[in-house]
Amino acid sequence: MKKxxxxxxxxxxxxxxxxxxxxxxxxxxxxxxRFKNYFVIIDRNVAKHHFKSIKxxxxxxxxxxxxxxxPGENSKSHEQLRKIYESLMNNNFGRDxxxxxxxxxxxxxxxxxxxxxxxxxxxLVHIPTTLLSAVDSSIGGKTAxxxxxxxxxxxxxxxxDMVMIDTEFLKTLPxxxxxxxxxxxxxxxxxxxxxxxxxxxxxxxxxxxxxxxILDEIILKCAAIKAGVVSNDEREEGLRKILxxxxxxxxxIETASGFKIRHGECILYGIVAELYLSNKIGVLSxxxxxxxxxxxxxxxxxxNPGNLDFDVVYxxxxxxxxxxxxxxxxxxxxxxxxxxxxxxxxxxxxLYAFERTRKFFVR
Length: 363
Hints:
The chain is an alpha/beta fold.
């Protein structure tokens, strides 16, 4: 088991990662949390495969409630949030309680926001069960729900007290969800050193086959990058914005599709679009563009943004959280690890990048 620390003023916490680390959950909960009243929010699909092992790992307690959450982005809603509040209230949970989120990004976002807001804050532990949540959403304290078709429009920064990444969960993850998670994985390949890009690119087939050795190595590297970035910029005032590479286009495509295209896939489309946009406005050379499109070119999706109306996608961008003074802002790339923040682009250039992305994925 590896331990990564997220170092924050007054709210530092550990991220444990490895295979079969769930067996150490009770020990680590005792060390890093204060309360014994447990409210466990668990993805319904995860419960089908792992409920017995999770229940055993958590152990018996005087008060423990398991709340099963319907999977899917539509669960990040006011309605589902209200149901969680009602369950907490009906079971007499007070501030001396711990919320444990067991699932992917949807579960973590919703559980995190409920923990942040119920009685002005409960302790929180994340146990991510998807590739996407393991490398990204479980670390960093972003919590949110969706509203009126806009993703993560309501939320709060609320750090967990502990994150436990057990890569054994990935064995039962459906292949389409696993591949979706790779969209966030390769984001780190662009925003960090060339070494990670080369590692993922050269071992792509092994990763798709879920080779334990290479997969554990990459998850640990991505989690460490995320922890380091968050430690330096908790509330996305500067450096943390690099984590949004691919997300301006990605979130817009995701919401424009009515969340029918998975988040990680949308981020991959967003990465390609923002590579094209980087080239169009002159910050990324044509030679580097062709080179850095090699990795996304290895993905094969049935879904693609080709059927989406550009004006709908553009309209979603206009309410992106990163915008300033009514201008759409992008995170763009001049080279691996060289990220440009808060870059404005005109509608014509955005359309160009979108159209090039359509063609890129139609093959």
